[in-house]
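Recap from last week: sequence in, structure out.
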Amino acid sequence: MDFLYSLMLTLSPIIVFFLFALLTYLNRDNTYRSWFKFARWWIPLSMIAIFLAPEYSNDWVLPIEKGVVALFACGAFAIISTLIVLYSLFSKKTT
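Predicted structure tokens:
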């Protein structure tokens, strides 16, 4: 059971990767372009925010430190990217 549990924990990110890969496989070119417009400014800005965030925080109410900023940037990127791709997939093409 320990082996199966560790195997499940090791392979669990593959399931999420498979879902994102399936979404990108079904994309049209304009879907990729709209996502790329977002990603090309989000990634550098989040890297700068992580770099500028303090390593340790003395504030116990709202601790803003590198880990919190990185977690927010990663989570927001995943959620916004998924919304952009789903919106582009299900919106009607106007020509």
